[in-house]
Design brief:
It is a single chain. By secondary structure, the protein is an all-alpha fold. It has one domain (25-91). It contains 5 helices and no strands. Helix 2 packs antiparallel against helix 4. It is globular.
């Protein structure tokens, strides 16, 4: 079994490969239902306060990277016309 530090070094190496910071344009066609679920998955993953050990990549991510992911979740909701509904769903919590 790999140690956490070994796995962290592998991920650090992968993230430092030339070109990893380049933007990639994606054309994505998914249902609104899946957009809502995907945005919730991103929100839940970013909201985790206690690292579980399986989240080495998230632990290594900078604050800017995590903010960008949060922005992607918001952008998905905006493009699907679901941002108002998402806010109302969040208010139910």
């Amino acid at each position: 079994m790999q140690t956490t530090s070994t796995i962290a070094r592998v991920f650090e190496t992968i993230l430092s490969i030339p070109g990893m910071n380049e933007n990639v344009k994606l054309q994505l066609s998914i249902s609104r239902k899946n957009v809502l679920i995907l945005s919730k998955v991103i929100e839940r993953g970013l909201a985790c306060k206690e690292p579980s050990g399986d989240d080495i990549v998230l632990e290594m991510a900078s604050k800017e990277m995590l903010e960008e992911l949060n922005g992607i979740a918001y952008e998905l909701l905006e493009k699907a016309g679901l941002s108002a509904m998402n806010e109302k769903l969040n208010a139910l919590k």
